[in-house]
Write a structure and sequence with these properties.
Blueprint lengths: L1 H28 L26 H14 L2 H4 L2 H19 L10 H24 L7 H32 L2 H6 L5
Length: 182
């Protein structure tokens, strides 16, 4: 059991570090591209790892928290809360739907980050940044949520689904994520 627990902790830590590093580096090289309303956060491709190990769930959530801490001066605590919760719930659902396939691809799982980030981050943008004094505007929320979801869909369908195929075709899901027997 110790070997499985150690593997889980190491996987989660590596995934958290990769996610945070990729997001922060992207924001340094392309300011705002990973943290504004219209975003293409390349690190979101790592959410695909939630299909192969439950360690990705806390790993991605913690990685998102760390990445969003770097945005605190510009966005305040809002993205830290809403973006991280969206990641947590999306990865939980991705793991739950990991065996649902369309043409051998985890399409339903790949939709979860787009759906949940669209709702959570769309609400965050609408409520805290656009109309906080004027009140909540549902049409504007749909636009903001749609833009966030569009960026997520682009990352997961252009990069994530092909990554899942490469992982599975090369047996990396079993080599990298399955605990070794003694």
């Amino acid at each position: 059991m110790k070997n499985k627990t150690t593997l889980y902790l190491v996987q989660g830590a590596i995934i958290a570090a990769l996610y945070a590093t990729m997001t922060i580096l992207q924001n340094v090289l392309l300011p705002g591209s990973a943290s504004m309303a219209v975003q293409f956060r390349i690190s979101e491709v790592l959410t695909i790892l939630a299909l192969y190990t439950p360690a990705a769930i806390p790993g991605l959530t913690i990685g998102c928290i760390i990445a969003n801490i770097s945005s605190l001066p510009a966005l305040g605590p809002y993205d830290l809360i809403f973006g991280s919760l969206a990641t947590l719930f999306a990865t939980l659902l991705m793991y739950a739907f990991r065996n649902v396939r369309l043409f051998k691809l985890p399409v339903l799982s790949a939709l979860m980050p787009a759906l949940l980030n669209g709702i959570f981050v769309g609400f965050e943008i609408e409520f805290f940044f656009i109309n906080n004094a004027a009140g909540f505007n549902f049409a504007s929320f749909l636009v903001q949520g749609g833009l966030v979801a569009l960026g997520e869909l682009a990352v997961l369908f252009v990069l994530g689904l092909p990554l899942s195929r490469v992982i599975e075709l090369n047996g990396l899901d079993k080599k990298l994520f399955a605990p070794k027997s003694k």
